[in-house]
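[[Sequence with tokens]]
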Amino acid sequence: MTPVEKIGKQLTEGALSAIGKWIIIAALGLAAWQWISPPARDATDPPSGARSGMRLRTDNGTGCQYLETKGGALSPRLAPDGKQVCGPAFDVEVQK
């Protein structure tokens, strides 16, 4: 291996090592940020205590609400009277 090839190999290995370290630092920083500032509470959470772990989704075409679990399953959100919670539809006009 020529001296130029050795220098190129060392530079490449050094750059990859530095990039790897920065990726690990960024991942740890992101994890710390998530731990320090958890997601905001929403309408599916109780007034106090742990979060429900669900997300509230609204169908833009019908205005009907659904609850989404961490696994991605959807269920209609029901009001106390047993009917699905639906608001005004958010019709989106298709631009031509």
Remarks:
- The longest strand covers residues 55-58.
- DSSP finds one helix and three strands in the chain.
